[in-house]
Amino acid sequence: MSFIKNLMNIFGSQDDAEKINRISKVFAALKKHNRKALIPFITAGDPNPQITVQLMHQMVQSGADIIELGVPFSDPMADGPTIQRSSERALKHHVSLKGVLDMVSEFRKTDTATPVVLMGYANPVEAMGFAVFAAKAKDCGVDGVLIVDYPPEESAEWVQCLEQQEIDAIFLLSPTTPQERIAQVAKMARGYVYYVSLKGVTGASHLDLQDVGAMLTQLRQHISLPIGVGFGIRDGATAKAVAGLADAVVVGSRIIEEIEKSAETELLSNVGSLIGTLRKAIDEN
Prior knowledge:
By secondary structure, this protein is of the alpha/beta class.
């Protein structure tokens, strides 16, 4: 049983769990036990819509603390070729934002403890409408939303809609983020902040841990929320090193690669094995 599943003993019951901010609760429990969060990313509907919820459960069973679920988009500007291909595969199955929300609803039928964060781009959300999306996301059991192309300077209405539904607005920071924007994110962000560890797109591999450590020290002067680090984390050794610096380790492209190369009959076990390896490495700190 996963660490997050064991938190049900802390919550007291599934009904109680649903009333608690899952993201904050998870980070508080992890901190109490001197552990760091593992946050894997997959694209909803990749390689097909039928397996997404199974993948989510498999990742939790293998040690994931929070799941980032990508909303497929035709032009994912922040993503490298690997995650772009995952969106293309999902879109071939006509996976929509509504379909992604339906997947979260299905996941919640048997898991009310693990936080789920949707990650994607503005167009699908704006097509649905801020208020409608936020209400539907709340009803489905979404805990946080990260929209890559919503800068904090233009996000007041967006954040307000999420806050009204008790959903965390999560923001990205990068090595080139100016101080003024860091200050804005510190005021608006909820749940955790996602630090992009390098200049480039997802899947890049030129991770400089010294630079990451120095930047996290600067960010913590402004930000009290947990900080997760992603981009460029491809193996247990790197995950362990990042966990020694950050509050959470975010892994996406490496998991998508495992999905790409796995036969359907081995997909769940292969992804589970990868998550387990990352979990073990992170816990060695």
